[in-house]
Amino acid sequence: MLQEKGPCQAYHGVEEDEKDEADHDEVLIDRVTDLLSAIAKASGPGFEPLFRRVTPHLLKFNQPHRAAPDRVMAIGTLGDIVEEMGPRVQPYLKDLFPVVIKALSDKECGVRRNAAYTVGVFAIHGREAAKPYAKDAISALSRLLELRAEHKGNDGYEACRDNACSAISK
Known about the structure:
65% of the residues lie in helices and 0% in strands. 34% of the residues are buried.
């Protein structure tokens, strides 16, 4: 499903309303990523072999041309999975940390919120492997603390700031 090749994702030339198609795909992928998170929770560090296989497909959903809900889902799922895998993520940080740091500057608040959470998870479980990324991560996270006054009271921006504070403290 993450490869977007499932039978239910093939439309075989049938004209469908694009909004219905997008809604269907969003619900389907949300369920798949919920399942991945649940498997990671049940497997703990043993999830690493599957992580190695699914992460490239998951990160395709974080491409700039993808819809905001796809990017939110990709970064959030990455953080959820790594939370369960623990230190087994360390060999992957050289590839993943730059992606997540870049997501801290996404135009979508939900992506930034999930990226801040994921940076915190990387910091906890990455240990020494996370140190080379600390300066860039803290710089990007600190920009999230400087939200403009018109965003005060907006739950999404408050959650983004909360996650940034939490990540900086880790």
